[in-house]
Design a protein that fits this description.
This is Flagellar P-ring protein. GO terms for molecular function: structural molecule activity. It holds the Pfam family FlgI. It is found in: Bacterial flagellum basal body. The protein has eight helices and 27 strands. It is of the alpha+beta class. The strands form nine sheets. The protein has a six-stranded antiparallel barrel. It has a four-stranded antiparallel β-sheet with strand order 2-12-14-13. It has a three-stranded mixed β-sheet with strand order 17-16-27. The chain is flat and about 115 Å long. The two termini are about 20 Å apart.
């Protein structure tokens, strides 16, 4: 783990020439109106190998199955049937921008009942609705599940999530989103990470590309592009030219810590104030080993349990960093701690303490 962490830190803390550099505008912003739309549907999966919903615990599965059979001309009113190879599911998808009728999109299928696995199941024709209640796509196909379940009479093993899966190109678009891009005279560029410096650089880069003032920064997260001023053949031509403009973004100093895996990721512009750090491990052990004392054979007496407790405290030699100079890079401190053999989780505790002491000048994100 230490070797892996050192490798990751070495890669992430390279000079800014290798780390940041110029990035295409399309990777920094979202164009107003050019976005996807979420779709959702409620359907039925069939063909499961006895891993479907228990219809007594999931009556909605029996209801949708009856409705589908009746639409197909099969009358099941008043019938008692308890199949174990069907499961009710939610089907979700994202309709891409400018998706046309007949295009295919991927869908995700997730069980909502007590089904144990969707492996090998087939999704029956399921309409997908948007937030306005209209049907925009229809999904159907064989589910690809990334999980597996193996069980016996006394034990079971589960790997992955067998109750969800995907259907690549499983939905076909039946309705288009009514959006006329050519009618826009201005397009807002929304920064994914708002920053005044980055927004100003985007404005300068776009104006330099078109040779005139066509972009104006409104705030830290918005730059407005005047389509008419670009003198382009259409709005699409103007956006095509603007999205490939190269801009060097300005990032906030940030440290991201994942406590579960012990991963630490940081930027090269993180700085420390003058501070001293001391870290050590304190281990307290308490062991109970009661002894049973019995009377001698043919002697009068009672069996007695005598408590025996062992207690000890072990303190390992700490790691100290005295008088860290002003504006020292955090990468230098972490590299020193890593060279001294400090565990990643101990390093996370040290970073938390540095932030609490006000010596770590960066946004500290703990996941």
């Amino acid at each position: 783990m230490k070797t892996f962490l050192a490798t990751v830190l070495t890669i992430l803390l390279l000079p800014m020439v290798c780390a940041a550099g110029a990035i295409r505008l399309k990777d920094l912003v979202e164009f107003d109106g050019v976005r996807g739309n979420d779709l959702i549907g409620y359907g039925l999966v069939v063909g499961l190998n006895g891993t479907g919903d228990g219809l007594r615990n999931a009556p909605f599965t029996e209801e949708i199955m009856s409705n589908i059979l009746e639409r197909l001309g099969v009358n099941v009113a008043g019938e008692q049937f308890r199949p174990k190879n069907v499961a009710a599911v939610f089907v979700t998808a994202s309709l891409p921008p400018f998706a046309r009728v007949g295009a295919q999109v991927d869908v995700t299928v997730s069980a909502i009942g007590d089904s144990k696995s969707l492996l090998g199941g087939t999704l029956i024709m399921t309409p997908l609705n948007a937030a306005d209640g209209q049907i925009y796509a229809v999904a159907q196909g064989t589910i690809l599940s990334g999980g597996v379940v193996a069980e016996g009479q006394a034990a079971s093993v589960t790997k992955g999530v067998p109750t969800s899966g995907v259907i690549p190109s499983g939905a076909r678009v039946e309705r288009e989103i009514d959006f006329d891009l050519t009618s826009l005279s201005n397009v807002r560029l929304a920064l994914r990470e708002p920053d005044f410096t980055t927004a100003g650089r985007i404005e300068t880069a776009i104006n330099r590309e078109f040779g005139r003032a066509v972009a104006v920064m409104r705030d830290s997260g918005t730059v407005v592009l005047d389509i008419l001023a670009t003198r382009s053949a259409s709005t699409a031509h103007a956006l095509s030219r603007a999205e490939n403009v190269l801009v060097e973004p300005q990032r906030k100093a940030r440290v991201v810590v994942d406590q579960r895996s012990g991963t630490i990721v940081m930027g090269s512009d993180v700085r420390l104030s003058r501070v001293a750090v001391s870290q050590g491990n304190l281990t307290l052990r308490i062991e109970e080993a009661p002894a049973v004392v019995q009377p001698n054979p043919f002697a009068q007496g009672e069996t007695v349990i005598v408590p025996r407790t062992g207690a000890s405290i072990d303190e390992e030699e700490g790691v100290s960093l005295a008088e860290v100079p002003e504006s020292t890079s955090l990468s230098e401190v972490v590299a020193g701690l890593n060279a001294l053999g400090v565990a990643p989780r101990d390093m996370i505790d040290i970073l938390k303490s540095l932030k609490a002491a006000g010596a770590l000048h960066a946004e500290f994100v703990v996941r």
